[in-house]
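Notes to self after the call with IL:
- keep both proteins in one doc
- input above output, always
- annotate only the second one for now

Protein 1:
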Amino acid sequence: MDIKQIDPLKVILRVLELLIVKPLTIPFKIYKNALTSLSNAKAGDTEESNLLEEFPLYVWFVSIFDALIAIAYPVGILAAFIAAIQAPFKGFQIFMGILVATYFYPLFLGLFRELAQISLKVLLYLKLISKKGSQAY
């Protein structure tokens, strides 16, 4: 790629998007995905349902992260109100601080969930490969 093909405006816009916009939108997407995952938990085509027989503890461990993400916002909002009411001074600052921390908490939990899901997907793929290998004989 030639240096003349680089558009500085596009580079700056992309950097701003990655550094400002994405971190502000990803927590809500993670929250929405956790709610969707919990509502589709009984579907037969998920990794969890396919591996539940062989690895029940591990599937439960991965699913716990979805449950923690799902309760993060209601509990965080409630904690913010309680802390703001209980604070003798700077109640609004405490309220906003807890709300900001609560908003970004799914990022932290989502990272650990995705790391655990990677190994769950590897287990699923190994199971599928072993089934195909046994069918070939």
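Protein 2 (the one to annotate):
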Amino acid sequence: MKKIIALSLSISTIIISGWLILKNIDHLDIASNKIDSYIIWEKKKIDERIDIDFCEKQLLKNNLDCRRKNDRIESEIAFQTQFFALIIIIIQLILLVFILMSPTKLKNHNPSIQIDE
């Protein structure tokens, strides 16, 4: 019974950690250079606009910078979450191997009784 409980807890931990990894894939900033280039182009477009004044241009640029900074922070948190979830999965797989390799006790097994043939 203890072995079944340990197996179910280990497998459920692996499933939850795998779900965390898959959930945070969308938040990773893999192509950061491409996104940084996009931000630079957007800032140039804002500078070229003549329908807004200097202060509004600065606000728009600061908004882009803030959004980019928040995206980087979110990406870093997602990466750390995935890293720790992967470590937990590895530990759980090792524990799962040890649980499966542990001997199962037999009921009504009395080692003091020997049968001589």
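Annotation: The radius of gyration is 28 Å. The mean pLDDT is 87.
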